[in-house]
Amino acid sequence: MGLVVIQPLKGRHCAECRQGPLEMHVLESGVPVCLDCADLGHLVYLQRGSAALTRRAREGSSLFAVVVRLNRRHSRYERQGLLVEEDALARAESACLADAEARARRRARDAVRRAAEDVRFTAALAAEIVRLFPRCPAGRAAGIAAHASVRGSGRVGRTAAGRSLEEGAVTAAVRASVRHLDTGYDALLTAGVARHEARARVAAEIDAVLASWQTSSGEGPPGAVNGRAARQTRHAGRKRR
Predict the structure, then answer these.
(1) From 170's CA, which of 34, 52, 164, 221 has a CA 20 to 30 Å away?
(2) Contact partners, residue 21, CB within 8 Å, separation at least 6
């Protein structure tokens, strides 16, 4: 990562010149040092947001530093932007303005391509849900697939296993839908029941729904349980509680 500059959550003072509170500092021997004392005071701050501008400014600056800030919730430092030379930033801004139209057209093409890919994948996921759960209503399968495959959601449909339509990932998506829509799970959470305890309480209900959906149309009423399917469902349930 090279040079790292910290945006502190609390105001700190420079260990050398005693100025502060500091908006940014570097750590030298475990103590904060202001940018001027660290010989970085001539750099300007470029906030993250434009990948093209950031890349060009970084490449054009003989000296740069990555600016980070602590995310307490996730207990990790996250990148906020860069400190770069002012001339390098000016050149990068000019270059981005010069080809802004071309980049906009490329982004539009990429958006259309991704949208088409998402439609195809959602349809494939819905078809796989119906294959694994023949008695799952088609509309419900489509809804589960649409929810699980939202780009950038981090849901199971966007994982590597989900994109590969692995049976475990597909079953996990179906199980999550049943948990929220066909049991009292959400009400338990609202009542203050711990998540793991709430999952344990509704596990049998989920197993029953999934077993009924796994029963093919020629094997009896919706409530009938195919022995092999039930065992598979219970096994999947134990793995995901």
Answers:
(1) 221
(2) 8, 10, 11, 12, 13
